[in-house]
Recover the amino acids of this structure.
């Protein structure tokens, strides 16, 4: 080499040396500045310097301690969550350094300080597996137990405490661990207590007390040890321990609780004096807790009340009530009233019950107070007052526990006021009158008549039999015997009915009811196929009662009487008898019309509608000019419709409209005909008929009703625009009516169908203002909430769904309102509120149709709150129980995310796997599949399964989805690095830089490239 070449080489070496020295000076200066600030306690100044040092000089030998001190600075600044993350970064970045071990332990510590229990428990568990210091391993088990207890996992926490306590003796003897032993003993006890393992819990508390008699938690251990004794049936030991607690540690928060428990335990055992003494001591020693002493007195008073020691109970309640207000007062007042009631002190009891109702009308005790007040009024012979209170109870508490007693007392109060008929209806609900009393005789007769009229045969039989048993000599005994015959017939026991009517006719002489009995015998004999006996009974009737009700005129009169009294079976008998024997008389058309109407209005026989239709058709055919036959075809159509013969009904109604175009029932006939046509899916015909009905209507009300039905028919015909136009016209025809309100309600729904959600919100709101008492209000509120939800007004939707849920009768919609409220709360960012709503839904609707959706969004809510284990449980349950649901694949993906956030990388990778195959059934959405491939690749990378990670990440890259490409390529580069293939890694990182500039992955790839050294 010539002289010139040597000179240039020297100059170049000098330049390089200067650069290296400059870089070394920069690193030294930066670290020195950070170190100086750190040692001086200026952690806020040291933090950015350490961070800058690690970022610029990651390979420097001081980088590990700098990364470690980042976590220490953040911890000193009380930024606990960030401190834990920093120590985690130290472990991952400098796992081979001497600081990694302490960083791993500190990671758990600061997660615990940040109240991130799951990551803390996981970090401590990791330390127990890979930590290097035995004493820290022992402490890690203790703190893992604390974290698990915070996560409401007492069984796992107890196991962790046990592992800590099983550490070698020399470790537990060390100062740091020795201080934790007592807390671990106490923790074991508390965990077993939570799991109701009373003996194990007691052993833990006892061990704590033996070793820490003066420990800071001795009071807690004593209290819960006593509770364990109580649960194990050792009440004496429980009381003794609680008394010791109150005596030796009176300033403890558990001391007054101990006195309360003594009072309760002694009351349970019937030791009144001991219970009262404990309550009195509680009130004396702890004036601020005097109300609790009152509660214990209540408990004692209640036990005296149960034992019927009414005078003692009254005194205890009176003492306990002194100075109380609110709920305790309501409880005490009711007890006081009951004690006075038990002593027949009616005036005093009335005053106490009234105080409950006046001062605490919404308390759960109010229904009982009102029921008992009515009974007091009865005892005081204040019957109008008793009736008033009873009716108020029935109106307010339709399902109250005292309903039967209140109904009985109400009936009695009404009876005492002379309103026998009304009272009979109430007595029938609760048969409670004394059948032997003279005043009960007419009541029993009325009860029997009511039972027959309402076809409650057993009730009628009981009433008549009681009457004959206790009042057989009274004049109404014949009515009772007649009633029993009617009961037998009503029950379908022909033989018993025939025997009863025969016996009645033989014993009752010439009483008018005998003619009725003979008439019934004629019919029953014929029904039984005993024609000869029927003829003999008919002859006897005509012989004994010539010109009676069984003659032509009398039969019609009897038929009309029965019809007007709604005794349709008897009316049918009379009209059929008339038509059978007097078919050519002038009254035949009217008899046939009333026979048809009787069948139509009756509930028996089973084919009564078919028989009514047959009679109406016969009337129209045989008496076309008679006034009674004018609307026979109309009613024939209605009867056929009720009988299920829709084609026959359509034919009859169509014939009626054609032949009686001007009849007043034509409008109603058109509506009925159109409804039948719609049910037969003859929508075009239904629209035609209703269009004619609208055109023919002369009154706005009739036109509005016809137009309303037309709108529905148009909807059925899928002519929606015309249908909603018709609904709009209904409001013009009959403004201010329920029909118009219903039509306006449908118009609000049209706005939702057309995705005009804001307009729909306004429309439903206006509708509700105008129709606050309408029966559709609950559904309108639900629809308003749905429109608000669709319009992204989630907070408003939450309130509206809640309001709707309180009013809806439909259980499915009520359940849906609860679920949708949870969904909207989640969308509005109220995660706790959403979870509460989903809990309410799941509790009330364990098999509800929104159950999978509730599980999915429950998981989403937990994810937002960073509660990954809870999110994991929700998504896992959805995937298991509803494998075919539309949300299941998304739940499968989110399950992976939840597992990944808990560092359960292998499990997360397994969760993503079902979404990764290209031929999955049902197919997976392309975007979801691409994301699943990416996440699976990342998890496999974290699990050090680099070859499998390359497969997944390459699959993600192959999808070409923009959102996953840069991350997939970056992690591919990481995998190639771990597989010692720097060439592929370099090519992959360069591809990220070239194709995804400006992304975080480009920055990460750039940093990774700087570490690659090709051979």
């Amino acid at each position: 080499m010539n002289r010139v070449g040597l000179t240039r080489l020297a100059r170049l070496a000098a330049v390089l040396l200067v650069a290296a020295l400059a870089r070394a000076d920069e690193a030294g200066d930066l670290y020195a500045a950070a170190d100086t600030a750190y040692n001086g306690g200026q952690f806020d100044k040291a933090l950015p310097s350490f961070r800058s040092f690690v970022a610029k000089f990651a390979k420097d030998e001081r980088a590990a301690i700098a990364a470690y001190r980042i976590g220490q600075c953040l911890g000193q600044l009380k930024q606990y969550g960030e401190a834990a993350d920093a120590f985690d970064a130290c472990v991952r970045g400098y796992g081979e350094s001497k600081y990694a071990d302490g960083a791993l332990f500190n990671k758990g510590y600061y997660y615990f300080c940040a109240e991130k229990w799951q990551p803390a428990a996981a970090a401590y568990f990791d330390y127990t597996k890979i930590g290097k210091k035995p004493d820290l391993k022992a402490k890690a088990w203790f703190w893992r137990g604390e974290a698990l207890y915070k996560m409401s996992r007492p069984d796992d926490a107890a196991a962790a405490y046990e592992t800590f306590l099983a550490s070698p003796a020399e470790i537990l003897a060390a100062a740091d661990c020795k201080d934790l032993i007592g807390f671990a003993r106490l923790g074991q006890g508390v965990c077993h207590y939570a799991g109701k393992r009373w003996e194990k819990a007691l052993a833990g508390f006892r061990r704590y007390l033996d070793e820490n008699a003066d420990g800071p938690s001795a009071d807690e251990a004593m209290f819960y040890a006593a509770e364990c004794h109580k649960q194990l049936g050792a009440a004496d030991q429980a009381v003794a321990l609680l008394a010791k607690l109150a005596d030796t540690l009176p300033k403890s928060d558990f001391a007054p609780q101990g006195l309360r428990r003594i009072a309760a335990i002694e009351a349970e055992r019937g030791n009144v004096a001991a219970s009262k003494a404990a309550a009195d001591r509680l009130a004396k020693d702890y004036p601020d807790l005097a109300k609790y002493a009152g509660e214990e007195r209540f408990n004692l008073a209640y036990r005296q009340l149960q034992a019927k020691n009414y005078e003692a109970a009254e005194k205890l309640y009176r003492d306990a009530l002194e100075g109380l207000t609110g709920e305790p007062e309501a409880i005490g007042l009711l007890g006081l009233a009951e004690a006075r009631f038990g002593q027949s002190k009616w005036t005093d009891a009335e005053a106490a019950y009234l105080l409950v109702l006046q001062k605490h009308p919404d308390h759960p005790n109010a229904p009982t107070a009102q029921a008992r007040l009515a009974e007091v009024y009865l005892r005081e012979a204040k019957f109008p007052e008793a009736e008033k209170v009873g009716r108020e109870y029935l109106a307010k508490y339709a399902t109250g526990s005292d309903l039967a007693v209140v109904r009985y007392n109400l009936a009695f109060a009404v009876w005492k006021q002379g309103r026998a008929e009304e009272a009979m209806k109430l007595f029938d609900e609760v048969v409670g009158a004394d059948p032997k009393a003279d005043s009960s005789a007419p009541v029993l007769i009325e009860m029997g008549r009511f039972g027959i009229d309402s076809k409650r045969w057993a009730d009628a039989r009981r009433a008549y039999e009681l009457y004959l048993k206790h009042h057989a000599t009274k004049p109404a005994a014949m009515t009772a015997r007649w009633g029993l015959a009617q009961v037998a017939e009503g029950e379908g026991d022909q033989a018993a009915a025939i025997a009863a009517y025969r016996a009645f006719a033989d014993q009752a002489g010439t009483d008018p009811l005998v003619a009725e009995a003979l008439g019934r015998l004629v019919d029953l004999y014929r029904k039984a196929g005993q024609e000869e006996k029927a003829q003999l009974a008919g002859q006897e009737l005509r012989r004994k009662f010539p010109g009676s009700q069984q003659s032509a005129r009398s039969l019609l009169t009897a038929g009309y009487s029965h019809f007007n009294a709604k005794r349709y079976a008897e009316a049918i008998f009379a009209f059929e008898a008339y038509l059978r024997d007097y078919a050519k008389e002038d009254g035949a058309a009217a008899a046939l019309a009333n026979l048809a109407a009787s069948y139509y209005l009756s509930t028996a026989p089973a084919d009564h509608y078919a028989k009514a239709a047959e009679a109406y058709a016969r009337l129209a055919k045989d008496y076309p000019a008679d006034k009674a036959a004018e609307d026979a075809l109309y009613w024939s159509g209605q009867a056929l419709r009720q009988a299920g013969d829709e084609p026959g009904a359509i034919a009859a109604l169509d014939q009626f409209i054609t032949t009686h175009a001007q009849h007043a029932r034509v409008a109603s006939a058109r509506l009925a005909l159109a409804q039948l046509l719609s049910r037969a899916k003859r929508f075009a015909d239904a629209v035609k008929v209703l269009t004619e009905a609208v055109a023919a209507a002369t009154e706005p009300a009739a036109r509005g009703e016809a137009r309303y039905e037309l709108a529905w028919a148009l909807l059925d015909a899928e002519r929606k625009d015309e249908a909603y136009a018709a609904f709009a016209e209904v409001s013009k025809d009959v403004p201010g009516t329920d029909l118009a309100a219903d039509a306006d309600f449908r118009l609000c729904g049209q706005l939702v169908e057309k995705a005009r959600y804001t307009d729909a919100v306004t429309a439903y709101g206006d509708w509700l203002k105008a129709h606050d008492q309408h029966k559709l209000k609950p559904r309108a509120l639900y629809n308003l909430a749905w429109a608000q939800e669709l319009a992204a007004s989630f907070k408003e939707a939450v309130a509206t769904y809640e309001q709707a849920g309180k009013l809806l009768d439909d259980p499915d919609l009520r359940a849906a309102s609860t679920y949708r409220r949870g969904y909207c709360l989640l969308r509005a960012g109220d995660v706790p509120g959403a979870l509460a709503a989903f809990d309410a839904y799941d509790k009330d609707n364990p098999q509800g149709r929104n159950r999978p959706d509730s599980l999915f969004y429950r998981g989403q809510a937990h994810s937002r709150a960073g509660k990954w284990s809870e999110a994991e449980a929700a998504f896992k349950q959805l995937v298991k129980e509803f494998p075919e649901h539309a949300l299941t694949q998304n739940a499968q993906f989110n399950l992976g995310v939840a597992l990944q956030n808990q560092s359960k990388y292998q499990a997360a990778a397994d969760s993503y796997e079902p979404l990764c195959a290209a031929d999955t059934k049902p197919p997976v959405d392309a975007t979801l599949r691409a994301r699943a491939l990416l996440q699976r690749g990342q998890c496999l990378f974290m699990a050090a399964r680099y070859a499998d990670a390359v497969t997944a990440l390459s699959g993600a890259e192959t999808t070409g989805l923009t959102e996953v490409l840069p991350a997939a390529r970056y992690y591919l580069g990481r995998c190639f690095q771990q597989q010692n293939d720097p060439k592929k890694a370099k090519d992959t990182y360069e591809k990220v830089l070239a194709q995804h500039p400006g992304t975080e992955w480009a920055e990460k790839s750039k940093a990774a490239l700087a570490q690659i050294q090709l051979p």
